[in-house]
Amino acid sequence: MHTTSLDVADDATACAFFRIGLVLGVLDEEASREWAYARIEARDTPAIEIIEIATAHDRNAALDALQAVTAHADWPAAGRWLLEDLLVQFQSGQRSALDTCRTAMRVAHATQLPEDVYYAFDGLEDELVLLANGIYGTVAGLEADLVDALKQHSATV
Fold it and tell me: Strand, helix or coil at 58?
């Protein structure tokens, strides 16, 4: 998880990161709970919304609590952080190239990243289909392009 930026992020943007990450399966609810507990410990008087995130008992409660804080979120920043997490997951073998491309497209759309980010991953998904049919490209080349695209559009820039 992209904890360095989350340490200094405003609550709304961090909650947007966790909410979209949870909805798209990039993150689990425990990640948002751990973040909320750290915020509570760091503050003299934590916001009730953050306490609700920390004490959410299931996925739906976590989603509701996170949504309540996202009104003034920097959605593109949250999207770049999620793309960085996707990069780590892909490079560690937790995600396939196809799943990574499709999830990156969903992240780009859900977090209002520029259209060219969405289409970069859409193009890579098209290349995967061509590769699977033996028409174009190599696995190594496609994976390298996917890593490059994730690095280019993530928070690692």
Answer: coil
Q: Which pLDDT tens digit goes with each residue over 112-123?
A: 999 999 999 999
CA 119, CA 147: separation in Å to the nearest integer?
15
Count the neighbouring beta carbons within 10 Å of the beta carbon of residue 46.
16
* pTM metric for this prediction: 0.91
Q: DSSP alpha helices (H): ranges in the chain?
A: 3-8, 11-23, 29-42, 48-54, 59-67, 75-91, 97-110, 115-132, 139-153
> Nearest-CA neighbor of 20 among 103, 116, 100, 87?
103
Mind listing the pLDDT tens digit for each residue in 70-102?
Answer: 999 999 999 999 999 999 999 999 999 999 999
What gap in Å lies between CA 28 and CA 50, rounded to an integer? Answer: 17
113 — phi, psi (to 5°)? -70, 160
